[in-house]
Amino acid sequence: MGAIRGEISALDVGHNPSLAHPDDWAIARIRAEFVGYRIWRAVRKDGSLGEWVASLHDPTMGVDPTVMRPTAEELRAALVEEGQRAGMRARFR
Hints:
The chain is α+β, with helices and mostly antiparallel strands. It has a domain at about 35-90. The chain has 2 helices and 3 strands; from the N terminus they run H-E-E-E-H. The protein has a 3-stranded antiparallel beta sheet with strand order 1-2-3, covered by helices on one side. Strand 1 (about 35-45) and strand 2 (about 50-55) form a beta hairpin. The protein is elongated and about 45 Å long. The termini are far apart. Mean pLDDT is about 85; it is low at about 1-5.
């Protein structure tokens, strides 16, 4: 059983949250809010974590298929804007 929309549980970050990477909680929060996307972190060539990425899986939730930003806060803001753009697009159909 996973968390319902808007809730974050230990299941969102693995079975032992004390061993999870600190960014896992930010990813879980964004995933709970933007259920039409797959949220993940890119990995750089050197193995370190890179951009925050959202891949669109529900076309009613956004316009661009992939959104990338350097921070979780910037990704969340971009996804809010994507939702607004999707709403505008739906009105003109």
